[in-house]
């Protein structure tokens, strides 16, 4: 892209996890321009977002999702971003109420009804239980830790300590969880690549629901998760020690669209 070109963007949010979405079906966007992506996500000098998502043509599905964290680097799957891109594809008339699209972790089936998007996540075959935490991959890597002081916890500080202390260069997202009732949990998440707390993280919400089920904190296959930015539900089937048919369900909405000079 040339300098000082106008770029059309759409800003979406899913439970307060916010994204810049760009229709890149004609392949104009400079995908390796880390500086540009970081600038667009900057809350003071740019549009402001936790991440940036490109919607592209795909040979085997309705469209392709390419996800970048706000640090400008391409990353692994984003669950809230996945729900937002389904709403975006509907706005662009690429899909109607059902879709299958490609992302870095494979094909995702999804359905949209009004502003509610139900997104199928990858199957989870392994949840590692450690003395004080769980680790699993729900499309992105997640550390899940039960705490009793969720409201007052210094999530940024504690999350960074664990992210760099345990997981080194590659890192992980860090979720802190507190049980509310037999099927409801409050969570707060430190996101890798944003390097701070976000209001919600969809792959993190999914990880918490599955880890809490695996640990017998809940017996329900419909788990409610309350994030700082709103409520999500995770449903799943447990077969042969694997979690399949995992769905992340909640609202995804357009906040505004605009043009930015960059
Ligand atoms: N916000 C996301 C997770 C995005 C990826 C994550 N920051 C990482 O790099 O692992 C979500 O909703 O899942």
TrEMBL record:
InterPro entries found in the cross-reference section: DAP_epimerase_AS, DAP_epimerase_DapF
Active site as annotated: 78, 78 (proton donor), 201 (proton acceptor)
Marked site: Could be important to modulate the pK values of the two catalytic cysteine residues: 142, 191
Residues annotated as binding substrate: 17, 69, 79-80, 173, 191-192, 202-203
Subunit structure comment from the entry: Homodimer.
Protein name, UniProt field: Diaminopimelate epimerase
Keywords of the record: Amino-acid biosynthesis, Cytoplasm, Isomerase, Lysine biosynthesis
Broad EC category: isomerase
Pathway linked to the protein: Amino-acid biosynthesis; L-lysine biosynthesis via DAP pathway; DL-2,6-diaminopimelate from LL-2,6-diaminopimelate: step 1/1
Principal location class: cytoplasm
Family (UniProt): Belongs to the diaminopimelate epimerase family.
Record-linked PANTHER family: DIAMINOPIMELATE EPIMERASE, DIAMINOPIMELATE EPIMERASE, CHLOROPLASTIC
EC number in record: 5.1.1.7
Protein localization: Cytoplasm
Catalytic activity: (2S,6S)-2,6-diaminopimelate = meso-2,6-diaminopimelate
Gene Ontology molecular function terms on file: diaminopimelate epimerase activity
Domain of life: Bacteria
UniProt gene name: dapF
Gene3D superfamilies: Diaminopimelate Epimerase, Chain A, domain 1
């Amino acid at each position: 892209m040339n300098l000082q070109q106008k770029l059309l963007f759409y800003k979406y949010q899913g439970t307060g996890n916010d994204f810049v979405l760009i229709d890149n079906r004609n392949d104009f966007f400079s995908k390796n321009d880390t500086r540009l992506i970081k600038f667009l996500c900057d809350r003071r000098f740019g549009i402001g977002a936790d991440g940036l998502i490109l919607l592209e043509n795909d040979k085997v599905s309705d469209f392709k999702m390419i996800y970048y964290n706000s640090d400008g680097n391409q990353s692994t799957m984003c669950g809230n971003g996945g729900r937002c891109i389904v709403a975006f594809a509907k706005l662009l008339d690429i899909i109607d109420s059902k879709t299958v699209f490609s992302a870095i972790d494979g094909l995702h089936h999804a359905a949209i009804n009004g502003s509610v998007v139900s997104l199928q996540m990858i199957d989870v075959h392994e949840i590692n239980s450690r003395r004080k935490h769980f680790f699993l991959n729900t499309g992105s890597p997640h550390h899940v830790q039960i705490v009793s002081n969720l409201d007052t916890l210094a999530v940024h500080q504690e999350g960074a300590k664990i992210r760099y202390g345990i997981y080194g260069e590659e890192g992980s997202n860090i979720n802190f969880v507190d049980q509310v009732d037999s099927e409801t949990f409050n969570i707060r998440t430190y996101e890798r690549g944003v390097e701070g707390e976000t209001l919600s993280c969809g792959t993190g919400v999914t990880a918490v629901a599955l880890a809490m089920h695996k640990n017998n904190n809940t017996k329900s296959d419909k788990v409610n998760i309350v994030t700082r930015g709103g409520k999500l539900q995770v449903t799943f089937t447990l077969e042969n020690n694997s979690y399949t048919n995992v769905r992340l369900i909640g609202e995804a909405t357009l906040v505004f669209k605009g043009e930015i000079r960059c």
